[in-house]
Amino acid sequence: QTYHHHDIEMFIDGTFKYVDTDHDGVMVKGELAAVFDYLDVDHDGKLSYAEYTKYDGASAESQLTHDVFNHFDTNKDGFLQRTEYVDTLFSQMDHNGDGQVTRHDYDHFFTNVVHHEMHQGHNGR
């Protein structure tokens, strides 16, 4: 799977602005947890693909969005559990363990995810 550079930049930029809820340029775990709670409209503790793509800027038809969702769905049940979306994801982005994810950390993490997906091919959805 190949993604256009512009699409990757737009995805990363849009998602960071969405999860950095106080817009200070740094994401903390509480912000990611609050976004999960907001997206989880049926309050079942997991995000369906439809819930995941309801944030501003998400395109449910985008192959990149599908592939990132599938990448985070580590148990491959078709949903993002809270542990997959908040705990695991935050710890992977917070590479130095300081409890903060800078925009640089975020960009680096998602660039690696996208490159991984490009080399693995998409899992379909």
Automatic annotation (TrEMBL):
Keywords: Calcium. One of its GO terms (molecular function) is calcium ion binding. It comes from the Eukaryota. It comes from Magallana gigas (Pacific oyster). The keyword Calcium applies. SMART domains: EFh (SM00054). Pfam families: EF-hand_5 (PF13202), EF-hand_7 (PF13499). Residues 27-62, 81-116 form the EF-hand domain. This is EF-hand domain-containing protein.
